[in-house]
Specification:
Strand content: 25-35%
Protein name: FBA_2 domain-containing protein
Pfam family, one: FBA_2
Helix content: 25-40%
Order of helices and strands: HHHHHHEEEEEEHEHEHEEHEHEEEEEE
InterPro entries: F-box_Sdz-33 (IPR012885)
Number of strands: 17
Oligomer: single chain
Structural class: alpha/beta
Organism: Caenorhabditis tropicalis
Distance between the termini: 69 Å
């Protein structure tokens, strides 16, 4: 019996010769493959598999298999194909200038993209490198064909600094190309941990790239323009957030906020909590701020609407994540309650402030935990 990759490759050699009905019947077996069998597929197998399902019920195929397409821009340009199973499986299709083909080695494939036969090489890193007269135009052709042919959005956008002379020009061009076809991504990751992007590029991205699910910025940047579209995002993550001040916090309206290494002071956090108590940040469910100055006991006024304290409690967050409440103070201004969580330990020089808003994502209120009266709590 043939293994899965052999079956996929055989199925795409000549549909008419192999017998269309039988091939389609066999390819449907992908629905029932184990995780390990799917993991065996190389990027060329997955590309051919997706093409085969254009002849089948492709919307059903996507509903069952949870494929998504993500744009990557760095030293290489390309599309990452993701399959969400018990773990995420990833396959990468890159676009490269055909004049650089001698710098690559691997198995040769020819791929039909937008009625063109495009040469490609499958590398030992399982990257399918496709070769074009211009790598940027090749990426645009690939992206446009995927969006049109498969009727999908580009879900993710991941950018790192590239060392090519044309990197900034390519990045701006592909963002404008995508924005003409969709107004946001699901997730955005701007990764400056290895090298900072040019100032004009980071400012362009801040104005023109939006994420409705999660916006992440990683890297040791001391100053940047606050992203215009953060309010559209459900989740915000900023590491090395030396530039992220209380002023920026008051500009957010996210459900989840994680800020690492921020200059926000205890006074800033106190002000943020007071603003929340008066109706600001209506979407907020969980905020985490890692900074050098957190004293929960000094955040609330003596007349704050305190319900009591929680010891060794939990808050069930999104995706079944448990937030540990070692010790927390429960407040309830008006008809909404929240718990301010006391930091357990200091991580290096940072200490973590957290606040969760009830009900949690299992629709439990704060009283899913044992509530201690304020006089018996921690002060």
């Amino acid at each position: 019996m043939m293994d899965v990759p052999e079956l996929v490759r055989l199925s795409t050699t000549n549909i008419k010769v192999q017998g269309e009905a039988e091939i389609m019947k066999q390819i449907k077996s992908f629905f029932f493959l184990s995780f390990d069998q799917k993991k065996e597929l190389n990027t060329a197998d997955v590309f051919y598999l997706l093409q085969m399902h254009l002849y089948l019920d492709y919307p059903k195929f996507l509903r069952v298999n949870h494929f998504s397409f993500n744009l990557t821009v760095s030293n290489m340009l390309g599309i990452e194909v993701r399959l969400k199973e018990e773990r995420i499986l990833k396959w990468t299709i890159l676009t490269e200038f055909i004049g650089d083909v001698e710098g690559y080695s691997g198995k040769i494939y020819f791929l039909r993209i937008d009625d063109q036969m495009i040469p490609g090489l499958l590398t030992d890193k399982n990257e399918l490198v496709t070769f074009w007269n211009d790598r940027l135009e090749g990426l645009k052709t690939l992206v446009g064909w995927l969006m049109r042919k498969y009727q999908v959005r580009i879900e993710g956008f991941h950018v790192e600094k590239g060392d090519q002379m044309e990197f900034s020009k390519e990045l701006i061009s592909i963002v404008n190309f995508i924005n003409y076809r969709q107004n946001s991504f699901s997730t955005v990751l701007i990764d400056e941990r290895e090298e900072l992007l040019d100032t004009d590029v980071i400012n362009f991205l801040s104005k023109n790239v939006a994420a409705y699910s999660k916006y992440s910025h990683l890297g040791d940047r001391t100053k940047m323009r606050f992203p215009d579209a953060v309010n559209k995002s459900r989740s915000l993550l900023i590491s090395h957030a030396h530039w992220f001040t209380a002023h920026h916090m008051f500009m957010t309206n996210c459900v989840f906020v994680t800020i690492v290494d921020s200059p926000m002071s205890n006074t800033d956090i106190r002000c943020m909590v007071r603003f929340w108590m008066h109706g600001r940040f209506p979407r907020l469910k969980h905020i985490k701020v890692k900074t050098v100055d957190v004293r929960v006991g000094q955040i609330l006024d003596a007349d704050a609407p305190t319900i009591g304290y929680i010891r060794d409690g939990v808050y069930r967050s999104e995706n079944d994540e448990l937030v540990d409440i070692g010790v927390g103070v429960v407040i309830r201004p008006k008809d909404v309650a929240a718990t301010l969580i006391y930091p357990r330990t200091r991580t290096r020089r940072l200490i973590t402030f957290q606040m969760v808003v009830w009900p949690d994502f299992e629709d439990f209120n704060y009283d899913r935990n044992v509530i201690l009266p304020a006089r018996n709590g921690v002060h």
